Amino acid sequence: MIARSTGLGILIAVVSVSIAMVMTTGCDGDPCCIKGKVEGWVYVLPDGTSPIISGSRVAPDGYVPAEDMHVYIEEYPDRETTTDANGYYFIPGIPPGTRTIVTVVDDIEVRFRVPVIACTTTIGGGHEQGGGGF
Q1: Three-state secondary structure call for residue 76
Q2: For residue 14, how many other CB atoms are within 10 A of its CB?
Q3: CA atoms of 35 and 7, how far apart (whole Å)
Q4: Number of other residues whose CB lies within 10 A of the CB of residue 52
Q5: Maximum Cα–Cα distance for the chain, whole Å?
Q6: What is the pLDDT of residues 25-45, one digit of tens each?
Q7: Do 79 and 52 fall into the same domain?
Q8: Partners of 102 in the β-ladder
């Protein structure tokens, strides 16, 4: 009887630890599973003006990727990055909730509100002329 109880106790402990590990390291091994991520693209006109935040890999007509643009989360300014040669940005480790993606070009601030969900990557942007939100 004692052996059976001990075995059951060990099984319960193993299952509990496994559940805890999935909850904290699930999401394809992401250790920040309780937080979300945001990605998207920033485009500008060829003269470097009129920035937009987009959810598309394809630049809108007349726009080009904005390289080296500073992009950050307004509610968590330490969650920031710089766009690559394709205008792409990726910001991990964002607490869930409604968040504002921000980029600035020549004192023109473009903002886009997105729902950040734990363990999920949110595509930020999508409006033709940026700004806006959901």
Answers
A1: strand
A2: 10
A3: 36
A4: 26
A5: 80
A6: 445 555 546 899 999 999 999
A7: yes
A8: 72, 111
